[in-house]
Design goal:
two-stranded parallel ribbon; Alpha-Beta Plaits; Barnase, Chain D
């Protein structure tokens, strides 16, 4: 990609092989990171402020998009999907990789509405992972030093012992999973109970970020909310002895 970009910019071919030089070209118009997570099922390339490049050199702006399309096709050959999102007011980009460019407003999907919870409520987050038993046990052990700061900011919390997902849950999830589960693994569930106050959406986002930063990959994160005074809350809290108040016993 770097070599092709250098050619589009009429620089010597070696320029594209020098990341420092490539950074210099983009330093005034973009901020980016190199690298991809090989454990992920795909890559999303998001580019903000692409109009800056389009205004400076429209031809190059189109060529760069075509370069990304080439790499997306190559990635697809290795079952690694790639999506390129570009922020731009330009609406007449030529076809990229032989396919039309699709447009949509960034406001098509609004932010999630507030999802507050209070001390009298209950929140349960369930992490689902595919692993063998030994790996799953190590995963749970690694959670304890990673999550306290995030969870404690919302209230009291407790992580339950690792359990296998029910056969029904495992079969249903495997059916709708994009790829078959890794060989020799089973679907495990890790239940994290929380009692305190905050916003469930914010909590979920922070859990995803802190786990991602710690390179602790998971298949799915499910959030369950139990309203104060309901039988469901009482039943859910019965599994978390550290969270029960005297009035709950």
């Amino acid at each position: 990609m770097h070599t092709a970009f250098a050619k589009a910019m009429s620089f010597p071919s070696y320029f594209g092989r020098n990341l420092d030089a490539f950074n210099d070209v983009h330093s005034d118009v973009a901020r980016f990171d190199y690298g991809s997570d090989p454990a992920s099922s795909g890559t999303v390339l998001a580019i903000a402020g692409y109009d800056t490049l389009a205004r400076m050199d429209r031809r190059t702006a189109g060529i760069v998009l075509d370069i990304f399309a080439v790499h997306a096709r190559l990635a697809a050959l290795y079952a690694h999907r790639m999506l390129c999102l570009v922020e731009s007011t330009v609406t007449d980009y030529p076809a990229v990789g032989g396919r039309p460019v699709y447009f949509g407003s960034v406001w098509d999907l609004g932010p999630d509405p507030p999802a507050p919870f209070h001390d009298e409520d209950g929140v349960e987050n369930v992490l689902q992972i595919y692993a063998d038993e030994a790996t799953a046990s190590k995963y749970v052990a690694a959670l304890h030093p990673v999550l306290p700061d995030t969870l404690a900011a919302f209230g009291r919390w407790q992580i339950l012992n690792l359990v296998l997902a029910s056969e029904c849950t495992a079969a249903l999830y495997a059916k709708h999973r994009p790829k078959s589960p890794p060989p020799g693994t089973r679907l495990w569930e890790i239940f994290i109970g929380l009692q305190g106050s905050g916003d469930r959406t914010v909590l979920g986002d922070q859990l995803v970020h802190v786990l991602s930063d710690a390179a602790m990959h998971f298949d799915q994160l499910i959030t369950r909310f139990y309203t104060a005074g309901t039988e469901e809350r009482t039943q859910a809290l019965s599994h978390y002895p550290n969270l029960r108040n005297p009035d709950d016993r």
